[in-house]
Design a protein that fits this description.
By secondary structure, the protein is of the alpha+beta class. The protein is built from 25 helices and 30 strands. The strands form 5 sheets. It has a 9-stranded mixed beta sheet with strand order 24-22-23-25-26-27-28-30-29, sandwiched between helices. It has an 8-stranded mixed beta sheet with strand order 14-21-20-16-17-18-19-15.
Amino acid sequence: MLSGKLFKYWTYQLFAPGTVLKEKYAAFKSLLAHDKKAHDLMAGLEEIYYGHVKKDFSAVERLCDALSREVAGIVREMSHISPAAYPDLLAFFKKIEAYVRFMSDRGSPDPGTPFTLGLSATGPGDLELTGGKALNLSLVKNGLRLPVPDGFTITTNAYHRFIACNALREPIDDRLAALDIDDTAMLEATSGDIVRMIMEADIPPEVQKAVLDSWHTLADSDTGGCGVAMRSSAVGEDSTASFAGQYKTLLNVARANLFDAYKRIIAGKYAPEALHYRISYGFSDLETAMAVLVLPMVDAAASGIMYTTDIDNPAARNLRIHAIWGLGERLVGGESPADIFTLSKQNPPRMVASLTAEKKRQTVCAAKGRLQSLTLDDVKQNAPSLDAAAAVRLAGWGMALENHFQKPQDIEWALDARGDLWILQTRPLGRGTGPENVPTCDFSAFEDTLLLRGGERAASGIGGGTVFNLAVDGDLAKVPDQAVLVAQNASPAYVKVISRLSAIVTDTGSAAGHLASVAREFGTPALVNTGSAGRRLEHGHPVTVHADALSVYAGIHDRMLESACARSDLMADSPFLRKMRYLLKFVSTLELVDPEAVTFAPQYCRSYHDIIRYSHETAVREMFQISENRIRKIGFARKLDTRIPMQFLVLDVGGGLEDGESGKKTVTIENVRNKAMRAVFEGMTHPDIPWEHRHFDWEAHDRIVMSGGIASPDATMFASHAVVSESYMNLNLRFGYHFVIVDALSGREAEDNLVQFRFSGGGTDMSQRMLRADFLKKVLQRIGFEVSVKSDLVDARLQGAAPDDCLTALDMVGRLLGASPLLDMVIKDRSMVDGFVDAFMHGRYHFGSSDLK
């Protein structure tokens, strides 16, 4: 296959170089599209990890799958740009992809047997089968030999079979991947959709049979006429993450309601509060597969909760028992006060204190699988629901459980009508360390020291140190430890000193850029695209950067640096983030920084980011002849001879230049066949546009832009350039700090015509650049474009215009480009915008200092 591709390539190279160039450009354009999408996807993954964004893992899987496809597209286009030149690239991509898929692709669980498992037959290795609640009870029953009802578990295998047989996995993941759990309406809607799907689904016959067979083993249990208790027992539940109150428990379930109750508990896994808790804690949906514990109901005379540590006074060697009459639902549901018994943790335990509450009602089993709430008489309302002997016995069990599990326990117990005590649940005792305890910080006291606010958060956190402003001293080697690096551009070259930085602030840049990726990887707070940091943050002055608040303050504020907001949140070591750390090692780590280094090669790629970085740099070299490794210099970029003061290259990919011009090193606009480009240049060279007053010192500009950069400042890739065919034009213009892209497809049919325009940048502060953006927007709208503006970035689109109208619009775009480069230095307030727009539309294309009067 490769040999055939090479034969075709070299044949075209020798006999039809224009075809090769055309195919190269098509591949290059496709590669750039893949590159942009890959960076956006990579930034999305990094934002989830470094910003501790609460997302279901299905969202991560979707992002990883999409990223793999985009990087595969980059590798594929590299083989089209230069077949056989980079044979190792595909092999290293496959290797990295395997590592990513190992963690991100969960595959499909095998929903095999058993579908039920008796509690007595459950062992320590059955966690993934029975979930935490059932496993813990089996250890209490089978290991410690404490009294536990002899029930069974409907296993996670049954859950997986139920999901698979009803084809629910993909629609559930679709909804979870899009879920923002902080959007209450979306959370409710997503939950409602998934719950409905589950309740409308059918339980597979083989699961029904297994459940009924196990239920019959409980039919002869002496439960005082009660049914069974069916309780969630998800994997991960009753571990360090308790899921307390998040999943469903259904009491006194009759045989007729067995399967409806099962589906209700499965559906409870997707209740709004359960989704919020699970995702906040960092567990994925499959990590918390749902098993259901089925126990004979205890006909409870009293019940309650025992904490084997006094959480109000952890230093005291005491435990506490909370008790009420009847079933414990009124206690755990917060509907009833409880009697409280405090006992010392000694052998034997000793009652230290007791408090009897007024308990007005109790809940008991009723006929036909119902529960009944009864009013207690006056005597029982104020009587202790547990005697001292039972309390001492429970306390002894609590101490044994704490010793067995080697951590304080939260234990559910019941006392039946015959006076027998039962353990119904035990789990680690949480002490307010759940994901709901997110820190909040008030830094309003520092507002009077605010130096700058705005930009984009590239990496979260708070950092403080002395400003090292590259506009003052461009020597990266001089950056001191714990400095706040301030720069015009967000160059990936700063990775060389990032371990010494406390924060980064730049005038330009994007959260999807290379520097943002590296800053998130290193945990360095970074604020980009501020527009004015270089002017406002003085070299050598101490500052504190709060990236999440898009703010920089004068001075180093220890209170901010030591606050909870400057530390990792409670997800920092969650299962979710541990997996994300593994993934990002192979996704966004950047080792290939210096294109001139020997290690800038496919065999040194260790991540998708390395492949993207290597491919982009290499593809640009291939297209614009930075590399000299060529057989014939045919069809290369030509220098455009124009009175506009800029370096300009034209690359013909087929029919873009007049016949006979292909061998020349320099061409004029008259030699260009592409009508779109001629229209733009006709507008740009309009006689009323005085280019002689708008000279740009490109040499100085390149020195500034590329200071500490990753490519040579005289590289032709940084010139303005056009790629043209007979009907297609891609125009990339650089006027100093202004960047313009015009894409145009101009043909004979209106429905095929398309013009896309993008303008950004400038040498003044952001407020003036935004005023210029408003000017551009209003002019473009009058020409017929659809326009959107974000900060100083203008995006415009004209589609479906008649051929002549399309060329007229491009002529006006050219005039607009000639009129607007220095406009941001002239326009001072919004009141001037409409006047300048009217002036432009009436043929005025020069706005100087006289316009301020």
